[in-house]
Amino acid sequence: MSIPSRILAAGNSPLATVAIAGDAGTALVAVGSTQATALQLSSVFNAITTSSASTGLKLPPCEAGAMILIYNLSGQTLQVYSNETSGVTMNSAVAGSTGVQVGNTKTAIFFADSATHWCGSVALTAT
User: Fold this and answer.
1) FRET pair for 127, CA 20 to 30 Å: which of 11, 26, 59, 71?
2) Rounded distance, CA 78 to CA 83, Å?
3) First and final C-alpha spacing in the chain
4) Per-domain residue ranges of the chain
5) Does domain 22-125 have CATH number 3.40.190.150?
6) Residue 46 and residue 71: Cα distance in Å, rounded?
7) Model-level pTM?
8) Model confidence over 70-117: pLDDT tens digits?
9) 59 Cβ contact partners less than 8 Å away, ≥ 6 residues apart
10) Which residues, other chains included, contact 113 with Cβ-Cβ below 8 Å and sequence gap of 6+?
């Protein structure tokens, strides 16, 4: 596992450390009710706070090896979409423009196993 303090201690720059270990977005607020208007995520680790009902999040562009984590403490069930408007599926059968739901107090992990497919697990309960 990549731990930022250890990467820095090994002599890497802060920018290289973020590239290796990932960055975090905190106190994010989901917006929009469609793929086009959802909040664009730009961090690897994302904590979502108070959000309105029927709002969503959009993953970064799909590329093999990408991984995004979402911690939903918004008080709402959120819809998570792919970045692409067509050609990308989520969990094999769901269109990226349809997205998948992440319930309140849930943690979701999304990883891309190809340039056209996000795998997502949303069964983890946040505490």
Assistant:
1) 59
2) 16
3) 22
4) 22-125
5) no
6) 6
7) 0.91
8) 999 999 999 999 999 999 999 988 999 999 999 999 999 999 999 999
9) 41, 68, 80, 81, 82, 83, 110, 118
10) 64, 119
